[in-house]
Amino acid sequence: MTEHLVGLLLGTEQDWPRAYETLVRRLGAVTDRNGAEHRLRTVRVSIEPFGLRDRPSHDLVIDRLAYWYYHPREWLKKVALMDDVYLLNSPFTFQSMEKHAAYCAMMRLGLHVPETVLVPYKNPVDHAKWAYTAERYNRPFDLDAVAERLGYPLFMKPYDGGAWVGVSRIADSAQLHAAYDESGARLMHLQQAVEGYDVFARSLSIGPETMVMKFRPSLPMHERYEVSHGFLTDAVGDEVVTISRLVNAFFRWEFNSCECLVRDGVVYPIDYANACPDVALTSLHYYFPWAMTALLRWTAFCVITGRKARLDMDTARYFEVADTTDGYRDKLQRYRGLADAYFDVDDYREFCDTTLRHVPELVADWVSSADFDDLLVSTVRSTYPAHEHERFIGHFRGLLDLWRNDNAG
Ligand SMILES: Nc1ncnc2c1ncn2[C@@H]1O[C@H](COP(=O)(O)OP(=O)(O)O)[C@@H](O)[C@H]1O
Ligand SMILES: [Mg+2]
User: Fold this and answer.
1) 3-state secondary structure (DSSP) of residue 270
2) What residues does 192 pair with on adjacent strands?
3) What residue's CA is closest to ligand 1, atom 25?
4) Where on the phi/psi map is residue 71: left (φ > 0), alpha (ψ -120 to 50), or beta?
5) DSSP state, residue 180
6) Residue 2, strand partner residues
């Protein structure tokens, strides 16, 4: 006898759930054509903190709630990505990706994503059906116990966030409660902190091109990317490139940044759902010509070769690798193969070496031109207050000189 658990994720309605539950009970056991017996059982899904690695017992979930209540919506995504639960309907058919789904997917693929818990909203959700639903299905929970299981310090951050908004480092219970109280209407993750890391590697990817840069998050924007080469070993550098390409191929993102913390040679990806990342001249400076080259080459490749956008997700091929007993390195290598194939890396390289072989020189010429300097000057003028123009024009010119020297001949 195989029992199949069907979860009902409900708001205020009672009619059709009761009808369905009754019919399932009445159906009883059924025998398939191989003679095996099956039984369905229904359960109403309750709302409570869930670990992203917690195993649900549901085989299928019918959802009538996630369209307005985001905590269970994220649970649906988690069970879809981590546990193969069949969904009617999948939130992926009506919502694009954010941090949370990216964490789930990369966890399942075996990356070293710090342990993460999604806690329910602090404040009531502004919806007519909230009071009834919360009263019936929200379970009281002990926030301290959740935090203690993860361990301090930890980070509290919006499940869909960006640009550091609402991100806080939490050292103790008092800070935990203060931050949770302040989160109000924002849905928050609690995430184990990667303490004492050696390098913050931020990579920018455009199609199959990735630049891994040393990032200093505590400095002002124009100083965050340090001009530094060889700050990672070849192996770790390649691992960061692989992770970036994997994330992008998996989610069909072509333009994205990926943040990894490296500690004792272990790469912890912490933020990699940044589609349409900052590529301002004043933040990228030295790396700006690289970014423009990549953008030019990749867009040219796409239009000239007639590359088709792939909106379908090829998750099964990645999960097939994820679910093997292969070690982390072997899996990464196989993911790299899939991601490289997705981005047509070999064809692209060949295209760059032949059809676009003059592009590096073309970019170098441009960066040395008065036109580029004019762009630099006007960007500084529109970005900074007047008394800082001179300093910043000098600063960025210096960094671009460095690029020209490094890329000469
Ligand atoms: N798990 C973590 N361990 C250590 N530092 C973290 C962690 N999560 C976030 N941070 C720090 O907080 C910053 C912002 O968090 P992040 O996840 O990148 O959110 P955002 O999308 O807002 O950039 C990171 O750049 C990093 O400095
Ligand atoms: Mg970030």
Assistant:
1) strand
2) 154
3) 217
4) alpha
5) H
6) 38
Which listed ligand is nearest to 157 at the C-alpha?
1
Give the mutation target among 167, 213, 256, 268 for probing the ligand 1 site: most ligand atoms within 8 A of CB. Answer: 167
Q: What is the DSSP letter of 86?
A: E
Instruction: Give the orientation angle of helix 370-383 with respect to helix 359-367, to 10 degrees.
Output: 60
Q: Which two tokens stand for residue 36?
A: 């095996």
129-153 pLDDT, tens digit per residue, is 999 999 999 999 999 999 999 999 9
Q: From the CA of 114, give the closest atom in ligand 1.
A: 1
Where is 256: in which H helix or E strand? strand 255-263
User: Model pTM?
Assistant: 0.89
Which of 349, 220, 239, 233 has the alpha carbon at shortest distance from 285? 220
From the alpha carbon of 215, which atom of ligand 1 is closest? 25
Q: Is the CB of 167 under 6 A from ligand 1?
A: yes
pLDDT in tens, 386-397: 999 999 999 999
CA angle 13, 48, 106 (to 5 degrees): 110
* Ligand 1: residue whose CA is nearest its atom 14: 164
CB 244, CB 254: distance < 8 Å: no
Question: What is the enclosing helix (H) or strand (E) of 328?
Answer: helix 328-342
Nearest atom, ligand 1, residue 164 CA? 22
Q: Ligand 1 pocket check: which of 155, 191, 257 to mutate, most ligand atoms within 8 Å of Cβ?
A: 155
CA distances from 296 to 206, 211, 246, 285, 301 (A): 10, 15, 22, 17, 8
Q: Are 343 and 208 in contact (CB under 8 A)?
A: yes
Going by alpha carbons, the residue nearest to atom 26 of ligand 1 is 217
